[in-house]
């Protein structure tokens, strides 16, 4: 890898404040420009996130972080790993990086105009080439380990409604081949053609069962059609994929995984559909008859949106080392305290300290961004080391 010169590093770092101010404008222009010149890439990028501007915002944060840490790339290690797994799940290829680089540099120049000179643009070209080389290398390693390349057809052999919003799809390779191993907490990309926008769209869904060698299971939350942007793929899955249907699936990826070799307590904390990786983790621990103390803590709106409740109760009944705590934010008349849920209101660690603040515990968090921020802040305030907290956020947001 060709190292940047001291002058190039200084120029890129000096642009960080400008990117903090104008980053979203640049990235919005970048995506618009790239899709005009390369419309085929609409099949790769989440167009709903383009409509909501969440993807340009996420990219702006990433570009700013890269500029601010250009002289200390080690600080970006976890972010690089996260991005590489996302890219590998979407089948991003090395030949697509020059397209992104060309349009990103052009967007910087066109938005900032005379505020950025040619030597600074040259520094950014070198910086982008360096980042591309890092990501391509990381993704090459992931592809080499992947169970298959690209997207593979799977047949839905079972479909099960888990709540008013979440439906599980059980998948087997349509060619009759073996089902791959994966680590609890990993996800796959599922690709569907969206007629409303005329392109294929990939979406990433966590594998919601323990690795079993027989099937893969994803549990999809229906995003309401009145939402803006609508849940294109989730609604297609709910309304258009029945038993016998075929879906295109990528190989499992993701770094948010269970440390299965440990013997310390495990605290699994989820909100809404963030329960899916926790189900996979708990199912895996139960399948190996783990004796680790496991605390499963879940928050959702009410019993109608509570997925996997009966399954969790059965696990708790069979495994004395597992406890459950369920919060319903807004209960219905038919929700039974002590049976369906344990506490009314939002998740509050102060009410369950005996089940959350466990010595040497590892904490796994997953859910919407506001939920994740609240839980991480609460754990930090309670004195939990950040090194013991692992988090996965759905969508393109970030905790901090």
From TrEMBL:
<dbReference type="InterPro" id="IPR000971">
    <property type="entry name" value="Globin"/>
</dbReference>
<feature type="binding site">
    <location>
        <position position="187"/>
    </location>
    <ligand>
        <name>FAD</name>
    </ligand>
</feature>
<feature type="active site" description="Charge relay system">
    <location>
        <position position="139"/>
    </location>
</feature>
<keyword id="KW-0520">NAD</keyword>
<dbReference type="InterPro" id="IPR017927">
    <property type="entry name" value="FAD-bd_FR_type"/>
</dbReference>
<keyword id="KW-0479">Metal-binding</keyword>
<feature type="active site" description="Charge relay system">
    <location>
        <position position="97"/>
    </location>
</feature>
<keyword id="KW-0408">Iron</keyword>
<feature type="region of interest" description="Reductase">
    <location>
        <begin position="148"/>
        <end position="400"/>
    </location>
</feature>
<feature type="site" description="Influences the redox potential of the prosthetic heme and FAD groups">
    <location>
        <position position="86"/>
    </location>
</feature>
<keyword id="KW-0813">Transport</keyword>
<comment type="similarity">
    <text>In the C-terminal section; belongs to the flavoprotein pyridine nucleotide cytochrome reductase family.</text>
</comment>
<dbReference type="Pfam" id="PF00175">
    <property type="entry name" value="NAD_binding_1"/>
</dbReference>
<keyword id="KW-0223">Dioxygenase</keyword>
<dbReference type="GO" id="GO:0046210">
    <property type="term" value="P:nitric oxide catabolic process"/>
</dbReference>
<keyword id="KW-0521">NADP</keyword>
<dbReference type="Pfam" id="PF00042">
    <property type="entry name" value="Globin"/>
</dbReference>
<keyword id="KW-0560">Oxidoreductase</keyword>
<comment type="function">
    <text>Is involved in NO detoxification in an aerobic process, termed nitric oxide dioxygenase (NOD) reaction that utilizes O(2) and NAD(P)H to convert NO to nitrate, which protects the bacterium from various noxious nitrogen compounds. Therefore, plays a central role in the inducible response to nitrosative stress.</text>
</comment>
<feature type="domain" description="FAD-binding FR-type">
    <location>
        <begin position="149"/>
        <end position="259"/>
    </location>
</feature>
<keyword id="KW-0561">Oxygen transport</keyword>
<dbReference type="GO" id="GO:0019825">
    <property type="term" value="F:oxygen binding"/>
</dbReference>
<dbReference type="GO" id="GO:0071949">
    <property type="term" value="F:FAD binding"/>
</dbReference>
<dbReference type="InterPro" id="IPR009050">
    <property type="entry name" value="Globin-like_sf"/>
</dbReference>
<dbReference type="InterPro" id="IPR039261">
    <property type="entry name" value="FNR_nucleotide-bd"/>
</dbReference>
<comment type="similarity">
    <text>Belongs to the globin family. Two-domain flavohemoproteins subfamily.</text>
</comment>
<dbReference type="GO" id="GO:0046872">
    <property type="term" value="F:metal ion binding"/>
</dbReference>
<keyword id="KW-0285">Flavoprotein</keyword>
<protein>
    <recommendedName>
        <fullName>Flavohemoprotein</fullName>
        <ecNumber>1.14.12.17</ecNumber>
    </recommendedName>
</protein>
<dbReference type="InterPro" id="IPR012292">
    <property type="entry name" value="Globin/Proto"/>
</dbReference>
<dbReference type="GO" id="GO:0009636">
    <property type="term" value="P:response to toxic substance"/>
</dbReference>
<dbReference type="InterPro" id="IPR001433">
    <property type="entry name" value="OxRdtase_FAD/NAD-bd"/>
</dbReference>
<feature type="site" description="Involved in heme-bound ligand stabilization and O-O bond activation">
    <location>
        <position position="31"/>
    </location>
</feature>
<feature type="domain" description="Globin">
    <location>
        <begin position="3"/>
        <end position="140"/>
    </location>
</feature>
<feature type="site" description="Influences the redox potential of the prosthetic heme and FAD groups">
    <location>
        <position position="392"/>
    </location>
</feature>
<dbReference type="GO" id="GO:0008941">
    <property type="term" value="F:nitric oxide dioxygenase NAD(P)H activity"/>
</dbReference>
<feature type="binding site" description="proximal binding residue">
    <location>
        <position position="87"/>
    </location>
    <ligand>
        <name>heme b</name>
    </ligand>
</feature>
<keyword id="KW-0274">FAD</keyword>
<feature type="binding site">
    <location>
        <begin position="272"/>
        <end position="277"/>
    </location>
    <ligand>
        <name>NADP(+)</name>
    </ligand>
</feature>
<dbReference type="InterPro" id="IPR017938">
    <property type="entry name" value="Riboflavin_synthase-like_b-brl"/>
</dbReference>
<dbReference type="InterPro" id="IPR023950">
    <property type="entry name" value="Hmp"/>
</dbReference>
<dbReference type="GO" id="GO:0071500">
    <property type="term" value="P:cellular response to nitrosative stress"/>
</dbReference>
């Amino acid at each position: 890898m060709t190292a940047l010169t001291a002058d190039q590093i200084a120029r890129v770092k000096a642009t960080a404040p400008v990117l903090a101010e104008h980053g979203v404008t640049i990235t919005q222009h970048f995506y618009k420009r790239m899709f005009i010149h390369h419309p085929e890439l609409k099949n790769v990028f989440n167009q709903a996130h383009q409509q909501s501007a969440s993807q340009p915002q996420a990219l702006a944060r990433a570009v700013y972080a890269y500029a601010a840490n250009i002289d200390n790339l080690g600080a970006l290690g976890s972010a690089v790993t996260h991005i590489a797994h996302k890219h590998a799940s979407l089948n991003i290829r090395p030949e697509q990086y020059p397209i992104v680089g060309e349009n990103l540099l052009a967007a910087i120049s066109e938005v900032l105009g005379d505020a950025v000179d040619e030597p600074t643009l040259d520094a950014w070209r070198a910086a982008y080439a360096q980042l591309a080389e890092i990501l391509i290398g990381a993704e090459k390693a992931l592809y080499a380990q992947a169970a298959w390349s690209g997207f593979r057809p799977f047949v839905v052999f079972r479909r099960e409604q888990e709540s008013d919003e979440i439906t599980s799809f059980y998948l087997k390779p349509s060619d009759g081949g073996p089902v791959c191993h994966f680590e609890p907490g990993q996800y796959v990309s599922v690709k569907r053609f969206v007629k409303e926008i005329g392109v294929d769209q990939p979406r990433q869904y966590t594998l919601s069962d323990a690795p079993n060698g027989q099937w893969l299971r994803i549990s999809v939350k229906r995003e309401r059609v009145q939402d803006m942007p609508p849940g294109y793929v989730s609604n297609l899955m709910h309304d258009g994929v029945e038993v016998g249907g075929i879906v295109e699936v990528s190989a499992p990826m993701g770094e948010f995984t269970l440390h299965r070799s440990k013997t310390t307590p495990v605290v699994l904390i989820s909100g809404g559909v963030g329960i899916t990786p926790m189900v996979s983790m708990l199912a895996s621990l139960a399948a190996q008859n783990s004796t680790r103390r496991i605390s499963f803590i879940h928050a959702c709106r009410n019993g109608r949106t509570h997925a996997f409740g009966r399954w969790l109760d059965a696990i708790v009944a069979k495994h004395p080392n597992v406890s459950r705590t369920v919060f319903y934010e807004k209960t219905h008349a038919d929700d039974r305290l002590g049976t369906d849920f344990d506490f009314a209101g939002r998740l509050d660690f102060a009410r369950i300290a005996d089940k959350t603040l466990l010595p040497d515990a590892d904490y796994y968090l997953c859910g919407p961004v506001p939920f994740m921020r609240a839980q991480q802040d609460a754990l930090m305030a309670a004195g939990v080391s950040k090194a013991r907290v692992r988090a996965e956020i759905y969508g393109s947001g970030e905790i901090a």
